[in-house]
Each structure stands twice: as structure tokens, then as C-alpha cells.
Design goal:
Length: about 60
Amino acid sequence: MRRIWASENISWRLTKMLHVFPAEDPFDHKIRESDYDLLLTSETAQSALAHEYLGLPFED
């Protein structure tokens, strides 16, 4: 279940960052821009995203 929820989490976060929703207010817009800007300018954020995107290891 941890893998499933981790996958859901990263999918939702990427969706929120890369798409504009009809009900988005100016605050949400600035948060989305800030998240995207951080990803573009921070190797640490890029590494963290790559790590999360690859997923958790399979558990026995």
C-alpha cells in the first residue's frame, strides 16, 4: 500500500503543478509557479522528484 499511495501522491503533485484548474485562484497560481520554478532551478528538488517518480522499492 505504501507504493500505491506514494505513486498517487507524486501523480497528484505533478498534476497540480503542470495543469491549471478552473477553480484556481491567484494564490494557487502563485504556489504552482513557485513549485515549478523551484524544480527548474534546484538540483536537489530535481533529484527528489526523480527519486519519487521512480517509486519505492518492492517489499517482500
